[in-house]
From TrEMBL, chains A, B:
<feature type="binding site">
    <location>
        <position position="201"/>
    </location>
    <ligand>
        <name>Zn(2+)</name>
    </ligand>
</feature>
<comment type="similarity">
    <text>Belongs to the QueC family.</text>
</comment>
<feature type="binding site">
    <location>
        <position position="207"/>
    </location>
    <ligand>
        <name>Zn(2+)</name>
    </ligand>
</feature>
<keyword id="KW-0067">ATP-binding</keyword>
<feature type="binding site">
    <location>
        <position position="191"/>
    </location>
    <ligand>
        <name>Zn(2+)</name>
    </ligand>
</feature>
<comment type="pathway">
    <text>Purine metabolism; 7-cyano-7-deazaguanine biosynthesis.</text>
</comment>
<feature type="binding site">
    <location>
        <position position="204"/>
    </location>
    <ligand>
        <name>Zn(2+)</name>
    </ligand>
</feature>
<dbReference type="Pfam" id="PF06508">
    <property type="entry name" value="QueC"/>
</dbReference>
<protein>
    <recommendedName>
        <fullName>7-cyano-7-deazaguanine synthase</fullName>
        <ecNumber>6.3.4.20</ecNumber>
    </recommendedName>
</protein>
<keyword id="KW-0479">Metal-binding</keyword>
<dbReference type="InterPro" id="IPR014729">
    <property type="entry name" value="Rossmann-like_a/b/a_fold"/>
</dbReference>
<keyword id="KW-0547">Nucleotide-binding</keyword>
<dbReference type="InterPro" id="IPR018317">
    <property type="entry name" value="QueC"/>
</dbReference>
<keyword id="KW-0671">Queuosine biosynthesis</keyword>
<keyword id="KW-0436">Ligase</keyword>
<feature type="binding site">
    <location>
        <begin position="12"/>
        <end position="22"/>
    </location>
    <ligand>
        <name>ATP</name>
    </ligand>
</feature>
<comment type="function">
    <text>Catalyzes the ATP-dependent conversion of 7-carboxy-7-deazaguanine (CDG) to 7-cyano-7-deazaguanine (preQ(0)).</text>
</comment>
Length: 227, 227
């Protein structure tokens, strides 16, 4: 099997990072199967971006899977808790969604096994981020090991690889990578707490990190902010 | 905090094993929060059993969470593939659902963190079973380690325990345990492929293992079978 015909599952939130990660998979010659989880997030609008990105990248299949994590709550993204707007802090913020990346990667693994794909792309990075534990390399490495114990394919010696092409990039690197890959940053959505009229708030961690990245890279992000 | 006030999340499919596992948690003094996943399984009828068991055990909260794994397929339980009826084989059978226990445990972990519970009960056992990789002790141990890397609570030193009270029991042991705990086996549902009239088929692996267990234990299972 040549690399051109290999399939990859891409976890596509609709944010800048997942867009760039998916485009890197496409550049490497993978055929793409995209998974987006509609977890009843406050910023559901990112699902529209995921759809647009999937179309632009010409994926083979795009599954938007409803999974209502607001039934669990425990996060500013899934419960009635205010999204912090005062800047990126040192602690893990309340926008952390309990076990989210583990849940999403597990789903991605199930889809990979069902579609006979062995590569999974996720756009995590642990430099310009909010300190979420499930974005760190040691979590990803642990998941990769567990994937082989958790599955029939892994048990039969045909294991899975979790690809994290953005792991060691700054947000400025990611912004530059988007331009290099011919992506329009405006296709993607980062804001956690959209203002009326569907404009990014410009103040949440996710808006701040995005703005900082484009500024440092000296690239104009066509995204319009409310503030 | 006394053990009486501790909360446990119990993964409750509605089958015999998850019923007994949950009742053991109750016996140990935990307050129970039950999670049942409606994954569009062929034997959706088990959801009714889960509801009955949750009521009988007096759980604090019972979440039945829709998650349509038939969008992925790849299993006789979620796609148009026949359920084997000729007896338990050596290979991992087509009733294996890709990454199911990893997906379910990940969800349970998210719920545990959101509800500030640290114990998770799952009714896996690896003696009288269908050889599913995600029922084995090494998978559970791997998950427990990863849970601490995947979560804010784990990162802050307050880790999770995956309790598998049935891990080393035979099906006969589990049948005896059900009776000892005052459970009516008929509350639970095991069959993968219910016949018309909502009767268990009596021929799938799950029916066979259940029948064998009660027979070996010398206990009458009031469940009526179609064959």
């Amino acid at each position: 099997m040549t690399s051109e015909s290999r399939k990859a599952i891409i976890l596509l939130s609709g944010g800048l990072d997942s867009m760039v990660s998916a485009a890197i998979a496409a550049e490497q010659g993978y055929r793409l199967i995209a998974l987006t989880v509609d977890y009843n997030q406050r910023h559901k609008i990112e699902l529209q971006s995921a759809q647009k990105i999937a179309e632009k990248l010409g994926v083979d299949e795009h599954i938007i899977l409803p999974l209502d994590l607001s039934r669990f709550g425990g996060s500013a993204l899934t419960a009635d808790i205010d999204v912090p707007k005062t800047g990126v802090a040192d602690d893990i913020p309340v926008t952390y969604v309990p076990a989210r990346n583990l849940i999403f990667l597990s789903l991605t693994l199930g889809l990979a096994e069902a579609r006979d794909a062995r590569d999974i792309f996720i756009g995590v990075n642990a430099l310009d981020y909010s300190g979420y534990p499930d974005c760190r390399p040691e979590f990803i490495e642990g998941f990769e090991r567990l994937a082989d114990l958790a599955t029939k394919a892994g048990d039969q010696g045909s294991g899975f690889t979790i690809q994290t092409p953005l792991q060691h990039m700054t947000k400025a690197d990611i912004a530059r990578e988007a331009i290099r890959l011919g992506l329009d940053p405006a296709w993607s959505w980062s804001c956690y707490d959209p203002a009326p009229g569907d404009l990014p708030c410009g103040l949440c961690d996710s808006c701040r990190l995005r703005q900082k990245g484009f500024e440092e890279a000296g690239i104009v992000d066509p995204t319009r902010y409310v503030t």
